[in-house]
Amino acid sequence: MHHHNCFIISAIARSLNETLKGQYLEKCFSNSIDEIYFEFNHSSFRCVFYKGELFFNFENDIVGENRLFKPQFKEIVNALVLSVEIHPYERSFHIEFDNGHQLAFKCFGRKSNVLLFSEDQVTDLFRKNIATDLDLTWEQLVRPIQPVYESAHFSNEAAFTNQYPYLPIEIFESMKRDASGEQFDSIINNYHKACYLAIDDKPMLTFNLESKENNVLNTVTEFTSAYLKSKIFSEQKTELIQKFSAQLKEKENYLKSNSAALEKLQNTRKDEEIGNIILANLHTIKEGEKKIIVNDVYHNCPIEIKMDEKLSAMKNADAYFKKDKARPYILKQLELKVNNSVTEIEKLKDRLMIVENAKQMRDLKAYTKSTTTDKGVVNLPYKYFKVDEYEILVGKHAESNEKLLNYFSDKDDVWLHAKDVGGSHVIIKIKKNKPLPDNILEKAASLAAYFSKSRQQDLATVAYTFRKFVRKIKGAEKGKVTISNEKTILVKPGIPS
């Protein structure tokens, strides 16, 4: 069962009410755009957003502040919790504070959010990229819902989820098209008594929602950890399979190309013989010809030879002699490329087999950096470099580039990007009242060139400007921007030591 349904959400709210009622909220902050932490005087919990979905962790651990620390919902810090209120048959609940504010937890799949209400209006929200939540009213969030059976809503899965988004899909699967309203009510009542959470459609962590003996919060925390680890492992495995498969295909094409070039060169007549044939026929060759047909002194038959019409016959012969001198080196290089390709292909096949057979994250450890903590919290979406005392952030992909601009850069930071080619956005975190050293700019520009389609060039042009002069293009795909006041720098692509 998916964790965003009215039965699970209601169980969480009821258990939280027993835990938080009468406590004060002492701290509320985030260390990343994907996690918010609430610390009360006797307990704490975290909300983790994974691809937009909200997951709860009620471990009561103390979370420290990191360099991306940001206070959240200052209006309710030091406020007293009056109660945690269930929203019947809805995928949300809220904490009622004594200062008139309500903190609502909206568990709407990938559109989940944490919202602060005052006088029935949203005054603040955690995921600010969901702009429509600013217009959400209290009446729209806390709706009076009572599931009513109608056969039309069970005609197909889409009709069911459209009418009953708050119910688990398992109810649809339990109902038959001609089932009665009584059976519908009975199934719903059964879910109040026996509910479960699942990972990859495999039931786990079954508990009775109406029993006070269940520690729902511990169960949900266990589910969060297991689910995120499972999902992140699965996605990491898929990503590595795609990566190694692409590399294998590329290397096989490379081997095919070099093998063909080697075979052709091995079966091609030596250029030294062509040069000798030209010398033997000097008296018959006219100047300025692109092709000549002369007698092959080796086989005593006519042969057609390509010529450079700008050179004399003698210099054409010299050109063939020079080309022949390079032949052993070219053969050696092609043989080396072929042998190396065969070795690399075998390594890639081994890696691919290991990844395909991997059962857990540690099986992938040799091929990727860890992307999660032990508690399943996703790390920051960028590559991090530190040169001297300056931090340099590099986007990983289009979505990462956009997050870098929206959440991890200030207006006076320096933004860089390889000129006129696809690549990562790069941000230099600027120190206040300090001019940016030239060597830091050069090294950041080298990173921008390296993480772009200019990587293979000896020198690449990189554009840079202040972050405040970078604007997202309205309606464009993620990562697309327009810039002003730009300057350029010519650098060698590379990663600083």
Can you lay out the helices and strands and say which pair or pack?
Blueprint: H1 6-20, E1 25-32, E2 35-40, E3 44-50, E4 53-57, E5 70-71, E6 81-86, E7 92-97, E8 101-106, E9 113-118, E10 121-125, H2 138-141, H3 157-163, H4 169-174, H5 181-193, E11 195-199, E12 202-207, H6 216-266, H7 271-280, E13 291-296, E14 301-306, H8 313-356, E15 382-387, E16 390-395, H9 398-407, E17 414-418, E18 426-428, H10 438-450, E19 460-466, E20 470-472, E21 481-483, E22 487-491
Antiparallel strand pairs: 1-2, 1-5, 2-3, 3-4, 6-7, 7-8, 8-9, 9-10, 11-12, 13-14, 15-16, 16-18, 17-18, 17-19, 19-22, 20-21
Helix pairs in contact: 6-8, 7-8
Kindly describe this structure.
The protein is α+β, with helices and mostly antiparallel strands and 497 residues long. Helix content is 35%, strand content 24%. The protein contains ten helices and 22 strands. It has helices spanning 6-20, 138-141, 157-163, 169-174, 181-193, 216-266, 271-280, 313-356, 398-407, 438-450; strands spanning 25-32, 35-40, 44-50, 53-57, 70-71, 81-86, 92-97, 101-106, 113-118, 121-125, 195-199, 202-207, 291-296, 301-306, 382-387, 390-395, 414-418, 426-428, 460-466, 470-472, 481-483, 487-491. It has a six-stranded antiparallel sheet. It has a five-stranded antiparallel sheet with strand order 4-3-2-1-5. It has a five-stranded antiparallel sheet with strand order 6-7-8-9-10. A hairpin with a 6-residue loop joins β8 (101-106) and β9 (113-118). α6 (216-266) packs antiparallel against α8 (313-356) and α7 runs antiparallel to α8 (313-356). Mean pLDDT is 86; it is low at 370-378.
